[in-house]
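Hello,

Our lab assistant flagged a job as stuck in the queue for most of the afternoon. It eventually completed. Since we weren't sure the result was trustworthy after the delay, we are filing this so someone can double-check. Below is the sequence as submitted and the structure that was eventually returned. Let us know if re-running is recommended.
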Amino acid sequence: MWPTIQVNNLNQMQGPTNEVERHFLFVGKAGKNTGKLLSLNTQSDLDDLLGTQSSTLKTNVRAAMLNAGQNWTAHAYVLPNDADWTEAVLDVQQTASFEAVALVEPVSTAEQINAAQALYHQLIATWGRWQFMMLAVPGIDSATQDWPTYEATMAALQNGIAADGVMLVPQLHGNNVGVLAGRLCNRAVTVADTPMRVKTGPVLALGPAPKDSADTELTLATLQTLEANRYSVPAWYPDYDGVYWADGNMLDVEGGDFQSVENRRVIDKCARKMRIRGIARLGDRQLNSTPASMAAAKLYFMQDLRAMSKSVTIAGQTFPGEIMPPEDEDITIEWLSKYEVAIYALAQPYDCPKKIAINLMLDLSNPGDSQ
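-- returned structure --
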């Protein structure tokens, strides 16, 4: 045998993957760059990119930029008048990937909402990309509608729709979609945090308070009715300064796991990470049914869950990760045949208080009774 040495560099897939979280695609009409996909960050000149005149797209993108804060990035697609927005979203996948699509042009029919849900699943099937949909719905028509009429119209619009990849945002203030999108992209918190959070401060740059045909301003009662009908709306608290947000509602079915946007975002992030890990193990005999391989595979597929679960404790205060630290039994591997394996992974979000009840009691005992 001739003396030979061969050195192979083995890729163990230990590096990072590209992050698409907090990077949204905004779709709407503007006065400039029609039909183009624009890259945006906090230094972008929106007047130069989207035109100096007012537009729905520019108004909402500016609100998103302000509410997202540092290191915000996004893309915006300027929709032509006769274009199908779902086709535009599919076309721009050739250029970039996103965590969510924010359509700022209001939809007003169940067919449009169902089309967004179909698009959510088409992106998964075609590209292996999980991108939830934020759809604007019309705010009140102050010339013809009073608040009871508007509430009834909105309740009817979403009634009976099951769309766990879609959220509806009434454009009550003209830029609600942008405000919520920016709040979801703020890097002071994780994708597992609800937009309801108060600790990080109020929303910024929300448009003027709307009034109905009777010149009555928007009230908390109307917002609560809209929220009960699965819309994502602002909220405020008497004697507490600032305007905040209610829940980030998805159109999941009653009792579904994905009725709130934070659950949707967490599981979609897990899906993106686990998909890459699964692709890297295709045809690799290192993954087999032997006990040693099964144990190694559990560790391998658990890496992203462990990364998402990392918490930080500073001065005794813990900032939790996106999910609870995974246990060994949270990954299960089952061989369906000699060539097909099924992997089950459990991601457990942290508890989060969305309702707080404070119970007060008086202590009227006499200190002298104990002597």
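-- support follow-up --
The delay was a queue issue, not a problem with the job. The result is valid. The radius of gyration is 24 Å. The mean pLDDT is 96.
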